Amino acid sequence: MSAVVQIEQQLGVSIKDFDLDESMWSALTSSIFPGAKPESIIMAVEYARARHLDIMKKPCHIVPMSVKDSKTGQSNWRDVIMPSITEHRITATRTNQYAGQDAPVFGPMVDIKFGVVTHTVPEYCTVTIYRIIHGEKVPFCHTEYFEEACSTTKDGGLNSMWTKRKRGQLAKCAEAGALRKAFPEEIGNEYTVEEMQGKEITVGGSELFGDQKKIENDLIPVGYQEFEDTHLTGMRDLALDGMEALEAGYAELPKSKCRSHFWSIHKESLKIAAQNADNQQGEVYEHSPA
């Protein structure tokens, strides 16, 4: 039984219902969204189709986030489809009024302590977007401050992406804010994955920084978010090398409740990606964009 047939039986749908063939599904599961749950990939496909976007160009991301019910106070982890900065750029370009942007302008370098580590970071970043309005090139500026925009782990430290790409991540957040100001009707108040990583979504309330709120779900082990931030990308990369590499990677994960919780969430999708990798060795798929 092929991996696609297994998924179709599991979900109770046919991938053809979403204008996908087996080669496209293989690319989605093994290259574009490796390790993601099949139902989450379907959500991403539907998201892109509704917005007339090419899912094969990855205009959106599948982001595991803590979602809190404001009424019960309970939190649970679920996959959320979020736009990337690329989608905001596409939306702006489609208006035929987007007139480019200036290079990001960074503020002075300052020392800020996150958790137990002090980082030297740009204090802020300003991005200016231009839009043609009644024949005039009009600037829209947005300034984003590092301390307010950055994503942190549960212990208050910078997460891995913001540690490695301090200027790059801050510039993306500033650009997203400027695009929303310049194209409010087209983009609305939609935040990008770069801005929302490390936050907790409160259903019926506002978004809260993960390091400012204690996740009130006893099923989630202490330190799990940091564990996932540290290991998920690596495990997805190993899955692309096949089942043997995935099993070796799992054996090297630190033994803990976090590992058990991590495996219970991601085991199925990682194994599917690994099986696809094993099945595709030596094969080349040809497909057209969605």
Beta-strand percentage? Answer: 15-25%
Supply the helix-strand structural class.
Answer: alpha+beta
Run of helices and strands: HHHEEHEEEEEEHHHHHEEHHH
Through-space gap between termini: 25 Å
**Total number of beta strands:** 10
Q: In order across it, which strands form the biggest sheet?
A: 2-1-9-10
| Domains, number | 2
* Rg for CA atoms: 20 Å
Protein name: Phage recombination protein Bet
Pfam family, one: RecT
GO molecular function: DNA binding
Task: Give a short overview.
This protein has helices at residues 3-11, 22-32, 38-50, 85-94, 146-149, 160-164, 166-182, 184-187, 193-196, 224-239, 243-252, 257-279, and strands at residues 60-69, 75-83, 98-101, 105-106, 109-114, 117-122, 124-133, 136-145, 199-203, 208-209. The chain is α+β, with helices and mostly antiparallel strands and 290 residues long.
How would you explain this protein's 3D organization?
This protein is of the alpha+beta class and 290 residues long. The protein has two domains: 1-80 and 220-290, no CATH class; 85-191. It has twelve helices and ten strands. The strands form three sheets. Strands 2-1-9-10 form a four-stranded mixed sheet. Strands 3, 4, 7 and 8 form a four-stranded antiparallel sheet that branches. Strands 5-6 form a two-stranded antiparallel ribbon. The model is unreliable at 205-218 and 283-290 (pLDDT under 50). InterPro entries: Phage_lambda_Bet (IPR010183), RecT_fam (IPR018330).
